[in-house]
Amino acid sequence: MGIKSFMGRRAKEVSKKDYDAPILVEDYMSRKLVTFREDQSILEVMELFAKHHISGGPVMDDNGFLVGIISEADCMKQISESRYFNQPILDKSVERFMTKKVETIPHDMSIFDAAGIFDRHNRRRLPVMKDGLVVGQISRKDIVIAALKLSGQNWK
């Protein structure tokens, strides 16, 4: 009598199609953004930061294209200058203080790759792009929240 090989019951294989855990930047990014213009006063920007409880946002031109990013850190430059020259905070424009070389990430990047970018660069938020247009913004906090939601998942 021959011996039969017995492998037992196997777990059902999970195909990529069956696995739909949200792991993309677009799944966690903020879509409703407070945006700024180059000609806005830095004082107005600071007021909007306080009103909307945000710490920065994209600067857009008249055609809706990204031209920079303004943050609380950029506002600190204005506050510091006003103190140094013993003047009130003036209506200087955003263009003077914004960061013009803006790092962006694509909407279909995984949150793990985005976490790597945040780890390598000293940024608190990044504009999210699709087809050359800003479609959202993701922050370090958004990545942390995504990681907490995914902490129970097994990655193969």
Structure described in brief:
With 156 residues, this protein is of the alpha/beta class. 31% of the residues lie in helices and 18% in strands. The protein is built from five helices and six strands.
Number of domains: 1
Question: Any idea what the CATH superfamily is called?
Answer: CBS-domain
Portion in helices? 25-40%
Any guess at the CATH architecture? Roll
**Whole-angstrom Rg:** 23 Å
CATH topology annotation: CBS-domain
Count of helix runs: 5
| H and E order | EHEEHHEHEEH
Please state roughly what percent of the residues sit in beta strands, choosing from under 5%, 5-15%, 15-25%, 25-35%, 35-45% or over 45%. Answer: 15-25%
Distance between the termini: 41 Å
Please give the number of β-strands: 6
Runs in which pLDDT lies below 50 for 5 or more consecutive residues are: 14-19
What's the CATH class, please? Alpha Beta
Describe this structure as you would to a colleague:
The protein is of the alpha/beta class and 156 residues long. It has one domain: Roll (CBS-domain). Helices cover 31% and strands 18% of the residues. A three-stranded mixed beta sheet has the order 1-2-3. Strands 4-5-6 form a three-stranded mixed beta sheet. The relative contact order is 0.21. About 4% of the residues have low confidence.
How are the secondary structure elements laid out?
Blueprint lengths: L35 E2 L4 H11 L3 E5 L5 E6 H13 L9 H4 L7 E2 L4 H10 L4 E6 L2 E7 H11 L6
Parallel strand pairs: 1-2, 4-5
Antiparallel strand pairs: 2-3, 5-6
